[in-house]
Amino acid sequence: MFSAEALDVIDKIAVRKKGPGLELEERRERDVELWKQWKESDESKKYLRPLLNQFRGLIRSRSNSWARRADLPPAAVHAEFNKQFLHALRTFDPDKGNLGTWVGNTLKKSYRWVSRAQNLTTTQEGRYYQFRNFDAAKSSLDEQLGRPPTVQELSEQLGWSEPEVMRMEGEKRKSLHASGFEFDPTVMMPSRENEIRRMIQVELTPAERKVWELTTGESGGRPMTPGQIATRTGFSPSKVSRLRNAIAKKLEKYRM
Asked: At what angle do helices 109-145 and 151-158 cross, to 10 degrees?
C-alpha cells in the first residue's frame, strides 16, 4: 500500500504526463471545429481569421526561416506561405488525418517556390553583370584600337566563347530595336520593382503570362490595351479581363 503522500506524488506525475497529450488532443479538436465553421460559412473571412491565428506561429516560424536565407522580398515569402496555408485548408480531409499535420506538410510546397524564385532572381542578376562586363570590355577595346572590336577580340578580352559574344550582341540589338532607345542594362538591376516583375513569372499560368507580356510590353512590343490583347490572342474580352484581374491579385501579395 502507498502512503497518502506517495499517492499524491503519483497523481501529480500522472497529470503531468497526461496533460500535454490532452492539450494536444484538445488543440486538434479545436482546429477541426474552426475549420468546419470556416467551410460551412462558405470560406468566410470572419472564420478564416481564427484559423489563421491558430496557425500563425507555425506559418511565421517557417516563413521567417526561409525569408532570412533567401535573397527575396520577405513580404513575398510570407505571402507564399499564407497562400499555401489557405490551399491546405481547402484540400484538408478530416477523415484522413489531423489538420496540423496537413498544414505542416502543405507549407513545404513553399520551399520549392522560394527555390525557384531565388534561382530566377539569381539568373537575372547574373545576366545584368554579363551585360555590364560586355559593355565595359567593348568600350575599353574601342578606346585602345580606335575602332569597334571584332568578335574574336571581344572573346579574348572577356574570356567568353565567340558564339557567346555573338549572342550577347544579338540580345543588345534586339533590345535596342524593341525599345527605340540606347540599351540600358540598369533595367536588369535587382530593384524592388524588377524583383516583383521577375518573381511574378513563377506564379502566372501560360494564359496569364501571355496577357502579362502583352500588357507590359515585355514580349518585345508596345504595351497593348485589353481590346488589342483580345484581338492578338483570340481570347474573348471577358477572358482577358478575368486574366488581368487574376494577375492583379497575384501582384498584390508582393506589394504588401
From this structure: 120
Residues 6+ apart with CB under 8 A from 113: 80, 202
Mapping DSSP to helix (H, G, I), strand (E, B) and coil, where does residue 4 land? helix
| Average pLDDT of the segment spanning 39-60 | 88
Residue 216 amino acid letter: T
3-state DSSP percent of the chain in helix, strand and coil, to 5? 80, 0, 20
pLDDT at residue 119 is higher than 80: no
pLDDT in tens, 170-186: 776 655 444 333 434 33
What DSSP designation does 186 have? G
Please provide the DSSP assignment of 94-158 as one string. TTSS-HHHHHHHHHTHHHHHHHHHHHHHHHHHHHHHHHHHHHHHHHHHHHHHSSPPPHHHHHHHH
At 199, the amino acid letter reads: M
Residue 231 has pLDDT above 70, yes or no: yes
The packing angle between helices 226-233 and 206-216, to 10°, is: 130
Q: Could you give the maximum distance between any two Cα atoms of the chain, in Å?
A: 106
Q: Where are the beta strands (DSSP E) in the chain?
A: none
